[in-house]
Amino acid sequence: MDIVILLSITLLIYLLPQNKEYLCVKSTSGLRGFLALGIIFHHLSPWVTTGSEFSNFSYMGAYIVSIFFFLSAYGLYNQNENKKNYLDKFLVTRLSKILLPFFAVSLIYLLYRFVDGQLLDLNFFISLFKNGSTIIFNGWFVNVIILLYIFFYTSFNFLQNKLLSIILNSILIIFYICLSIKMGYGFWWYNSTLAFILGLIWAKYQDVIDKVLDRYYFVVLFSVAVLLFVSHHYGNLLSYLHIEDSYSYALAANINNIIFTIYFVVSFLKKINFSNIFLILLGGISFELYMIHGLVISMLGKIFVSSPVNDVLLTIFTLIISISLAWIVNKLVNTITTKVNLL
């Protein structure tokens, strides 16, 4: 990450007019669609070997997921504040919106694995848990977001004080991070989860945060940009300080991802309205799109062996097929859910 380029982009962003409703539902929904495309490009980067464009997405995965966690927590907190008895049916209504598509897409993956000749016995599922793997390719995020929703419900359902709820939520996430490290799970399982806490804090103290941004926007924007440049190189800093244990790396990575999320919110989201019709449509199927695209990449990657032409075709067909399948799954699940609710 070049500090000159980062500061130049920051200056250009500063000159743009501000988006006062930067966290409104339409803009954040469109942003989810935009981020879903970024995740697809991130997972395509190992498959696309010609040129250097996709290599830039190789390290963006954790940053993108951090924003997803932030938006999820921000939305949950505000809905709990604005909807009466929101948590009463949380496990049935809100969590089902994640679990039903998850089960539907998992069935597709299980069918694919069965046709591929994999033995789907009890040992298969036990090994997934032990090895920190998932039925869905790159599906760790789905498992974690379900867990974070349960943490949120537990924290805010049993404690009336919102600050104490956030503290308890933080303790649960830190416990999850430590447990994941202890079990030897991949770094990506826990290097961005604290961004969820940032979303809760931002939602609770947004009035204060907005006043600070309105008054000291220039100072905040450029200060966070400089912090981002420093935190992005946390690996080098820890190595220089001879701090190389897994827990320190997990903390440093989460701090880096939190700083990036703050930078993204106060720069791009504060200046750009993502309420584009196409992006909002993608935002509506972003969860399904996140789950299904790994399967599409895996299948198409066997057909389009990397070359200048095939890399373009792989990217185009991955986008078309992934979006189509995500839309179909979304419509099927919604149709089934509606019919069940009418019974």
Structure description:
The chain is mainly alpha-helical and 343 residues long. The protein is built from 15 helices and no strands. Helix 8 (162-182) runs antiparallel to helix 9 and helix 14 packs across helix 15. The termini are far apart.
Short description:
The chain has helices spanning 3-15, 25-44, 61-82, 90-93, 96-115, 122-131, 140-158, 162-182, 195-204, 206-231, 234-240, 246-271, 277-284, 286-301, 308-342. With 343 residues, it is mostly helical.
Low-confidence stretches at least 5 residues in length (pLDDT < 50)?
none
Strand content: under 5%
Distance, first to last CA = 56 Å
Percent helix, as a range, is over 70%
Mass-distribution shape: globular
Characterize the biggest β-sheet.
Answer: none
Helices and strands: which structural class? mainly alpha
Annotation, overall tally of beta strands:
0
Rounded to the nearest angstrom, the radius of gyration is 21 Å
How many helices? The count is 15
Q: Average the pLDDT over all residues and give the rounded result.
A: 90
SSE succession? HHHHHHHHHHHHHHH
